[in-house]
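User: Thanks for the earlier help. One more: ATP-binding protein. Can you show the sequence and predicted structure together?

Assistant: Of course, both are below.
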Amino acid sequence: MIINELGVMPVERLILKSEIQNINLVEKLIDEVSVKYSIDSEVYGKLLLAVVEGVNNAIVHGNKLVKERDVVIEYEISDSEIYFQITDMGDGFDYTCLPDPTLPENIERTHGRGIFLMNHLADKLEFNDKGNQLKMFFRLS
């Protein structure tokens, strides 16, 4: 394992076109990362669900399924943490104003649970100001 002077792996990157079938490439990436770095099965499960949900949101909501638009997935790993950054080419959204999917008026809705789910799976979420880039942090120990 090559570790830089900050004690972390260099950033790795995957660029996808905005097509739903490319989700399988994200699943494959998570599988490969988990094996390569011996990631615990509990963390693996959280990574898989959260990153797939984030990329799905970027494809569907961010890039509006315009297949010419890219979704960029980057990750970096250290001894104690891994983060994934997902960036789409969309206009972004106001991540500070999201409806609570657990409220009675939202229970029946078929959308609106992705960020809620990611927030519960990751140890920390960060959005850029525009709302078209998400970082998810996961503790490894």
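User: Great, one quick takeaway?

Assistant: Strands lie at 12-17, 70-77, 81-88, 124-127, 133-139.
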